Every structure is written in structure tokens, then in C-alpha cells.
Amino acid sequence: MGKWRYGVILDAGSSGTRLHIYKWLNVQRARHDADEEDIHSLPEIETERKYTKKIHPGVSTFGETPTLVGPDHLKPLFDHALKYVPKSQYENTPIFLLATAGVRLLPAPQRTALLKEICNYAKQNTPFQLPDCDLHIQAIPGATEGLYGWIAANYLLGGFDHPKEHDHGKGHHTYGFLDMGGASAQIAFAPNSTEAEKHAEDLQLLRLRTLDGQSQEYRVFVTTWLEFGVNEARRRYVKHLTQSVDQGATEIPDPCLPTGLKVTTDGKPVEEESATPHLLGTGKFSECIKAVFPLLDKDAPCPDSPCLFNGVHVPAIDFDVNHFIGVSEYWHTTHQIFEHKHEDKAYDYHTYQDRVNEFCTQSWDTIEKGVEGKKWGKKVDETTALEVCFKASWLINVLHEGIGVPRVGIEGLGGKHNGTKEVLGGAKEKCYLNPFQAVNKIDDTEVSWTLGRMVLYASSQVPPMTGQLAKAVGHGENKGILGDGITDGWQFGGGRPIDLPVDMKDDDDDDGGDWHDKLFEDSPRRIPGILLFLLIVCVALYLLCGRDRRAALSTKLRSLFGGGGSPSSGSRRRRGGGGGILGAGNKLFGGSSHPAGPTYDRLEAGPHPDDFELGDLDSDPEAHDDPRDRSGSSGAESLDSNSPKVGRSSGWATPQLVTQQSLTASSLDTSPPKRSAGYFGSSASLSLQNSNTHGFGLGLGSPNMFGNPIERFGVVSRTESREKLAPQHTVALPRMKSGGFTTPARGWSPVLMKEAVE
Q: Is residue 529 assigned to a domain?
């Protein structure tokens, strides 16, 4: 498992679907890096602009053709996610598609079929984690959408992690949340203590978990108004407008359109004179506000008092402590045209209404020229311009007549928040303490309810504190809490927490993960991947160590794994001949591939090889009386067959032991050299030519001979590499003098030659 965890979530709205990718540190890494303050905070969620992609229209348009939603709508979104989530994290990355008002308005059979098709397509075409369709692919209620938005706003503003820095008075440190889309509108806030106690059963219990495993609980009121989004409100407004004029009228005056603008009842511009009923803009914004007000339906029955509008119950809002953040249409309608050069400016009712009135009373010809000249920015087109007057009127009515937000600059706010000082400066400098502030981003992160859902999921992956009841992360009704800390209808934040290792390596975000994550990912292929990696490293090191050392190393490996005897053996086995584990790698490890090479004889006799161990190496040559330790260590070595240095080559020397008899033998003895049987053989002397002796050539002597069965003689440098590669012969060759030492002629193996007596 790598350093980062990822999550993919699709906001399936009424006008389009937007994909978001979020990432956060895995729990163990986050805990390792956290300081005293951060360890008590929620997991830190990150995202980037490139992680987002939106396409039109919404999935609700596939209600009658659900089989087309995958290839025609979801495929480019899934491809985008696969591009930016590292491959090593695919199977650990959850994917969610949460549909909102557009899908909620579909008939139940169409909605069920559509969501089922979406889940099947996601399972078949993405490798992401999708264990439960009911949890990951669903049409969420408007209240749930509002709660996720409330989480996102307070997470970004710091209300959760730094409550002392956001103390609004009366022990209150969270912010309210307002969201308005095309089809619905939501409100979410934590009432003051008095109202929370009075309306306890109307609240949602929300539980999060910080990095140290502590639970955070909040009680939040959330509600939604379906068909009170701007598009649905406009549809209801046009329907009421057309019904208020004489039947058969072709031109219907509309005060919510700029002067001279003609549009169809569907909002499309009318280019020429038309006998079809259409709307004609009069540009009277004050009349527009009055015409839109009845859409709030404030006279609807209120079965559970108090109510705001349309008979929807909402606890009394204390604007001294409840400061609201508005997103989506609240932002676009207040800033896209009227504050496009002052994005951080706080919302001011008086200033806003003046600017809207100034814009909407212009003729449509003047507005068109302003759009062409980019007077209001590059993002404002004709469609935006012709819709903004109605949207602004609807927004003002919802905020001030519906919800009751005080009109900054006109109405007193009470307490310390009043007067025109509240509208001076940017919203950031005032810590969002206005009753209402429209925002799009906070600290360069978009305020989206999808972020709130991912905060909930990441929080659920933190293991609870040891010794405490593991209360589930999620949300549900604020009543009937069970022993495990959940309530009726509890919505879990995610799957079970995963215990992940601490990974100190940094991911390369550009290519989607570092080499460590890709090689050591938590998958069934992990062990083979590690073995393959180690094999590649070993082969690379082997090829870089030089020809002489490769030959010496291959000899030792064959000796250990069954590749044949040592070069000093009396048998005529070729290197790497035949059997053993390394038998198939003769060419790679420098051995002969001669087909006549005999196979290796298994060791059967003697004690178990695990019964002995290497002796300690003492580098002091005077610490031993053994005559072998006083032999030279540089220059040409004596090639006496009885010498303990016989068989030494470049690299590590081949350890050998000889009998006491061989140490005292005369160097002038011209008889064929003798050897004592190895550790696993008999004690009788054996001829060098006896190739069938068991255990011969292992370099193992009697365990009682010198105290240790094996002694090491260090590393020497050999320059005569060709001697090692020359064919071995049993014919003796006279030696030539060289500096007081006898040197074999080139082209003959020094191991099997008898020393000439000079």
C-alpha cells in the first residue's frame, strides 16, 4: 500500500455529471507525520483542478434508455479517473456515484433501472472498489446532500479542527450551509443549544473520527426544498405567468427579462416575429421581485412549527451564531456578473440589489454588446445574461423572505455584528462572520458536497482509539442510539478501517505513484514481483563484478546447489555440468555446457551439514602457529598441491583444509599429491584422480583437526585470469622460475600440475 489513498465520486446532478478525485495520506503515514495539533484533526483531503471533469447533460436524461448511460455518458468520466488514479491504487480506491434532484424526480421504476445499470457498468468497466451498490450508487435525499455540503464547508473553514479560532459565541463554532441547484435547494446548520434541545428529534447525528481515533459528534438540522432550485422555480414562474394573461395572447410581458428580449416559454431566444406564445422582456426588476415572491408559498400549512416557506419545518435560526455559506447558484448568481472583479467581496444586499437593477433595466441590445466585449468576463454568454435577472430575483426572495437572512446595510444585525462596517473588506478578513457569504472556493478548494462525502469516508478509515467503544462513523437520526453507537437508518461512512503500513516514500503525482507503490502494492502478485525484482538485481550485480569473480562465484554456487565439484577436485567434472539448481544456467554463470559433464553425486554420509559452522576470522597472522598462516599473501603463490592456498582464485578464496601429514610433507616430494577424505568421507588418503569419492572437493576437513571445520584465508587478487578459463589437463608440466617462486606455463591448469623440483 502506498503513501496516498484515493477516492472517486461522481455528482450526478440534474444538468450534468461531474467527477471528482480526492486523495489523502494513509492513516499510519498521516499519524507518523502529524504534529501535536494535526493528530487531533480530521484526515487532510487534497484535490487538484485536473482531477475534475464535467459532462452534460445529466444521467436523468437516460431514464428511458438506461443501457446507453454507460457508453454514452459515463465512459469519458471513468477514463478520466483511470488516468489520474495510480494503477497500484485501483483496487483500494472506492468509487461513488450519488445522484441528486434530477434522478429523484424520475419515476421509481426508471430510477431503479438506471441506478442498477450504472452499477453494472461501473463494475464491468472499472477496477475500482465497489462492494455495495446500495451504498456506492444511489440517489441521495436532499437532506443527505445538504449534510455533506455542511461537512465540506466546515471542514474547509476549520470549524471542526480549530473550534477555538471559530468561536461565534454561545459555545458555537460551526457554520451553516446553503446550496441551490437547478431542481432543489438545501439548508443545513447546527442550531444553538436552546433550539437543539427543543428540536432534538429533528436533528441528524453526525459522527466523524480524527487521526488519533477520537470521535467527533455533531447534531445538525438539514432539510431540502424539492422543485425550489432555480430551473424548477423558473418553470413554475413561466407557467404562472402564462396562466395570468388572456388565452391566445402571443406576447406575454415578463419583468424578469431585459427590455426588448424575446424568448420562448422554454427560454430560447426568438429571432423573428412569431405567432407562437413567447415572453417579452420589460426590464422592471422591482416588479420582478414582487412577481417571484408568491413562488415561496409562505402561506402553506405548517404542521410542525416553526416553518420557513412551503410549509417546511426549520428550527429558529440564531443569526448571531449561525453564519451561512452559500454555494452553487448562490455564488454564480451573486458573483458571475455582478462581482466578477471582486470575488472575495462579502455579500451586501443593498449593493447587490442596486447592481442587479442597473443591469436588468438595460436594453437587450446593450447587454449583447457587453457580452461580446467580455464586459463581465469570459464566462458570461448570452444564455447566462438572459437568465440572471430571474435568478437574482429568486435568490433575493429565498435568502431574505424565505430563510430570513438579515439585509446587511439596511437591517441591524444585533450584538457586535451590525452597521456598514460588516460589508467593508473581503470575506476572508472578516472570518465569514456575515449572516450570509457566497463562496466558490475556500483556500483554492471548491466547496462541494462531494468533498463532504469523501471526508466522511476518509474519517471512517481511521481505526478507533484503543480501549474505546468503536462507534461507527456516519450519520443517522438523533434518537434510538444503539450499543455500537449507531441509530435507526444509520448511513455508514465507508467500509471497515484498513490497517496499512507506514510508507516513508513519496509518490510521484505526475505519473500516478512511485516505483515502490507499483512494485510492492498489496495484491496477490506482490511476492512474485519482489522475487523478480531481486533476481534482476542479482543478475545485474553478477554481470558487473568482472569475469574472474563471476567464475569464482559460479564455482561456489555450483558447489552449494549441486553444480559440480571445485576446481581442485580430482574428478574431471566441468563447471556447471549437468545437475544442481544452477545446472540450467551454465552460460549465464560462466560454466561449460559440455554434454559429457558427469552429474553431481549426492552427499549422504557423515553428520548433518548444519552441525558445523564457520570459525571466526583472526586477521593477526602471528596469533596462530599454523604454518599456513605464514605463507605469502601477495605476488605469485606457491602451487604446492599440499599448500592450503591451492585452488585460490580472484574473489573469495576457496576454503580448504588438509591433514597434518600433508603440512609436514617435503616440498620436494614428486609423488602425486594426496588428500585426506573430506568431512563426509573416510579417513583414508584418496587419490586426486578418484572422481567418485563422496564429499571430495567441498573443502571440508576433520572437525577436530584445527578446531574449526572451515577456515577462511581472505581475498587475493589474481591477474592470470586465462588460467582459470583454460582446459584442465592431468599431464604434469615443468615449472619455470619467476622471482623465487615457481610459475606454471600459460594454457595449463595449475590445479592438477605436479610441481617441478629445481
A: no
List, for residues 267-307, the tens digit of each pLDDT value: 888 877 777 889 999 999 999 999 999 999 999 999 999 99
Same domain, 138 and 237: no
Residue 358 placed within a domain: yes
How far is it, in rounded angstroms, from Cα 690 to Cα 172? 95
Residue 65, number of CB atoms within 10 A of its CB: 12
- pLDDT of 105 reads 87
Residue-level pLDDT at 86: 96
Q: Are residues 156 and 169 in the same domain?
A: yes
3-state secondary structure of 209: strand
**Closest C-alpha to 251, from 275, 287, 283:** 275
Residue with cell 472498489: 129
Do 312 and 339 reside in the same domain of the chain? yes
Q: Is 469 a member of any domain? A: yes
Our CA dihedral for 519, 523, 524, 530, rounded to 10 degrees, sits at 20
Q: Tell me if 184 is assigned to a ligand binding site.
A: yes
pTM of the model: 0.64
Which residues of the chain are modeled with pLDDT < 50? 411-431, 496-524, 563-758
CA distance 364 to 257: 9
Which grid cell is 554?
559460479
pLDDT of residue 753: 41
Q: Which pLDDT score, from 0 to 100, does residue 467 have? A: 66
Which of 356, 11, 347, 399 is CA-nearest to residue 178? 399
Is residue 583 domain-resident? no
Q: Are residue 376 and residue 416 in the same domain, yes or no?
A: yes
Let me know the angle formed at the C-alpha of 83 by 52 and 379, rounded to the nearest 5 degrees: 30
Per DSSP, the residues of 345-397 read BPP-HHHHHHHHHHHHTSBHHHHHHHHHTTTT-TT--HHHHHHHHHHHHHHHI
14 annotated to bind ligand = no
**Beta partners for residue 24, in sequence order:** 5
**Distance separating alpha carbons of residues 743 and 738, to the nearest angstrom:** 6
Distance separating alpha carbons of residues 687 and 713, to the nearest angstrom = 25
Cα angle: 632, vertex 635, 636; to 5 degrees: 90
Final residue before a domain boundary, out of 442, 466, 482? 442
Q: Is 649 annotated as a binding residue?
A: no
139 is in an annotated binding site: no
Distance CA 183, CA 329 (A): 11
Q: Does 186 belong to an annotated binding site?
A: yes
Whether 618 and 688 map to the same domain: the answer is yes
Q: Which residues are catalytic?
A: 145
Same domain, 165 and 243: no
Task: Please give the residue range of the domain that contains residue 310.
Answer: 230-442
Res 310: pLDDT: 95
Domains identified in the chain, total number: 3
Same domain, 145 and 42: yes
Please indicate, yes or no, whether residues 220 and 235 belong to a single structural domain of this protein.
no
Can you tell me the distance from the alpha carbon of 752 to that of 569, in angstroms, rounded to the nearest whole number?
9
State the pairing for strand pair 204-209/474-477. Answer: antiparallel
Q: Does residue 741 contact residue 753 with C-beta atoms inside 8 Å? A: no
Beta-carbon contacts of 104 under 8 Å, excluding residues fewer than 6 positions away, are: 111, 139, 141, 142, 183, 184, 226
